Amino acid sequence: MSVISTPAAALPSALPAEPGRDRVHLLPQTRQLRALHTVVRDRDARREDFVRYARRIIRLLLEHALDQLPFEEHQVRTPVGESYPGLRFTSKLCAVPVIRAGESMEAELRELHPSIRIGKVLIQRDKQTKLPRLFYSHLPSDIAERHVLLLEPMLATGGSANAAIGVLLQAGVLEENIVLVDFLAAPEGIRAVHAIHPLVQIVTSSIEERLNEHAFMIPGIGDFGDRYFGTPDAGAVR
Fold first, then answer.
1. Where is the Phosphoribosyltransferase domain (predicted)?
2. According to the model, what pLDDT value does residue 5 have?
3. 4, part of any domain
4. Which of 21, 52, 125, 191 is catalytic?
């Protein structure tokens, strides 16, 4: 299985050479991707533009995530009577969006894989303890037999992602069968995930510079869920 399609130099130096680095898959940083990011990062972007261009990036992310799954050779006969040495998935697949922002990726994934099983988890930060808390989980009964795409657009501190991964592990999913799909990822979040779950693969369209003192990603995108679904707080910075 190929590990990453961009040169190693494309990964920020903030990610040290440590276990787990080879499981970080950064989308090729093309000019087209940079142009898409320019729209979605603009605080003055109209919501319809934000959604349209975010969906294009999400589609690229999901295609890249699916490429991390195991394949086997599968030969088919073409309409002109020739054989084609193709590939097919070797494992059963499931997607688990982290409610609510992760659901932005669900519709795009269904376009790519209409029959995919979907689970759900709801994790929110406790206002008093500041720790992630599981509020809801509903997963396919056979999820332990599946590879799982864990859909979580923002990987900042890694707390929510680790909590969601923990839910999957308790359900019997193998750590090496989890692909965490993030729209953006902070170096701190990547390190936090791989410090506990080094076998989890991470696919992202951008590795940010850092977190600020409020744990917001820099340069960032704002609250992805609020901007995508059109429900920003009255005083929130977009």
1. 28-231
2. 34
3. no
4. 125
Half-sphere exposure of residue 17: CA atoms within 13 angstroms, side-chain side: 2
Instruction: Judge whether 143 lies within some domain.
Output: yes
The answer to whether residue 44 is catalytic is: no
C-alpha span between 38 and 32 (Å, rounded): 10
Q: Is 142 a catalytic residue?
A: no
pTM (2 d.p.): 0.88
Q: Is residue 159 part of a domain?
A: yes
The one catalytic residue among 78, 126, 129, 233: 129
Alpha carbon 221 to its chain centroid, in Å, reads: 15
Q: Are 27 and 11 in contact (CB under 8 A)?
A: no
Q: Which of 41, 56, 59, 226 is catalytic?
A: 226
| Number of domains forming the structure of the chain | 1
pLDDT (tens digit per residue) in 73-124: 999 999 999 999 999 988 899 999 999 899 999 989 999 999 999 999 999 8
Residue 232 pLDDT = 77
Catalytic hit among 23, 157, 182, 223 = 223
Q: Which CATH number goes with the domain that contains 163?
A: 3.40.50.2020
Residue 236 lies in a domain: no
Range of the domain at 111: 19-229
Q: In this predicted model, what pLDDT tens digit does every residue of 45-59 receive, in sequence order? A: 999 999 999 999 999
Judge whether 78 counts as a catalytic residue: no
DSSP H or E stretch at residue 113:
none
Confirm if 187 and 217 have CB atoms less than 8 A apart: no
